[in-house]
Amino acid sequence: MRAIAIAKPGGPDVLTLVERPRPEPSRGEVRIRVRATAINRADLLQRMGAYPAPPDAPPDIPGLEFAGEVEALGPGVERLAVGDRVFGLVGGGGYAEELVAHERTVARIPDGLSFEHAAAIPEAFITAHDAIVGQAGLRGGEILLVHAVGSGVGTAAVQLGRALGVFVIGTARTPDKLERARALGMNAGVVPDGDRFADAVRTHGEPAVVLELIGGRYVDEDIRAVQVLGRIVLVGLLAGARAEIDLSGILRKRVRIFGTVLRARPLEEKIAAMRTFEAQVVPLLQRGLIAPVIDTVMDLDQAAAAHQRMASNAGFGKIVLRC
Ligand SMILES: NC(=O)c1ccc[n+]([C@@H]2O[C@H](COP(=O)([O-])OP(=O)(O)OC[C@H]3O[C@@H](n4cnc5c(N)ncnc54)[C@H](OP(=O)(O)O)[C@@H]3O)[C@@H](O)[C@H]2O)c1
Q1: 8 shares its domain with 58
Q2: Closest Cα partner for 292 from 100, 112, 130?
Q3: Which of 210, 235, 259 is the last residue of a domain?
Q4: Which of 213, 218, 232, 309 to mutate to test the pocket of ligand 1 (most atoms within 8 A of CB)?
């Protein structure tokens, strides 16, 4: 099979098209003919040598999500059959024509959704839904603040917020991304003044939940912006892992701040996240209430250009690779 491997830690040019033996499914696993995958920030970090693959994933083939067809069944597989159209998450190995995954970490693709659209869904929608609903307990009628509203995860969160009936405030560093997010259901938008946004956000209302994709000094502003008993979910650290924050705001408002990652979770927790996705998010896709937002589609051998596109911060939504 063809795959994209990281030849050595470095820039996008270390991504190399290679031939690899096709993986064989173990007990409970299926082999999938990948038709499309999508790029994530974690892939860029892995390429630079800053985020090694977990032990159960290929060490040098990045890629955390996929859409494709079941091609072979390992022993004991019960839920899936050869030919099923599926999408899901893996700890790595997505930039390849074939991969293996546990049958309970994949879900069937709704009818009418292309592989390219399906590949743009798992990481963004599972991350966003798990963070704002599963962990922060967002409820209809509350206010949700979504940072980097034009990101893959941000565009998913805005739509989930709209589907849940919450008022969504978004931030982005350029007004055009806010404009595009309005079309997805965002109610109000703020361009931060440097890393200051709390006062501007509060003119629209006090968020109950913050989906924090930026980290760094944004967290102190989140604490200033949220309502009493607000919940801040730390999902990404694009502006850095260290910041000075005013602890008194956490005390006074009784704020909860918690962090989350998908990739490092043990298999049983990934299975639980996928089953929740299948029960609560896939029906919204089927009813057309939410949809993946695609920035660009490229071929597998253009992985380096896809990484450059993501690092440029110019995109809106997901960057997809056809396999
Ligand atoms: N914890 C998890 O399990 C998990 C899973 C998936 C993703 N993530 C994290 O979630 C975040 C979003 O991922 P994604 O794939 O959706 O991102 P993405 O599509 O690449 O978009 C990221 C956007 O963030 C904004 N941005 C970048 N650097 C920034 C900075 N220093 N300050 C302010 N804004 C900045 C840029 O938009 P503007 O310039 O327009 O503002 C950029 O387009 C990343 O940190 C990623 O690592 C975490």
Answers
A1: yes
A2: 112
A3: 259
A4: 213
Same domain? 249 vs 312: no
Amino acid found at 1: M
- Domain range for 73 is 2-121+263-322
Tell me: the pLDDT tens digits for 12-53? 999 999 999 999 999 999 999 999 999 999 999 999 999 999
Write down the pTM of the prediction.
Answer: 0.97
- In this prediction, residue 129 carries a pLDDT of 98
Q: Are residues 181 and 223 in the same domain?
A: yes
- Containing H/E element for 273? helix 267-280
* pLDDT score of 56: 87
Name every residue whose Cβ is closer than 8 Å to that of residue 56 and which is 6 or more positions away in sequence.
Answer: 91, 267
Which of 232, 259, 286 lies at the terminal end of a domain, its last residue? Answer: 259
Q: Which residues, judged by CB distance below 6 Å to any ligand atom, belong to the binding site of ligand 1?
A: 40-42, 123-124, 127, 148, 150-153, 172-174, 177, 213-214, 235-239, 260-262, 310, 313, 315
**Contact status, residue 143 vs residue 208, Cβ threshold 8 Å:** yes
Best substitution site from 153, 258, 320 to test ligand 1's pocket, by max atoms within 8 Å of Cβ? 153
- pLDDT per 10-residue tile (average), the chain, 323 residues: 98 98 97 98 97 93 98 97 97 97 96 97 98 96 97 98 97 98 98 97 98 98 98 97 96 98 92 96 97 98 98 98 97
Half-sphere exposure of 29 (CA within 13 A, CB side): 14
User: What is the tally of structural domains in the chain?
Assistant: 2
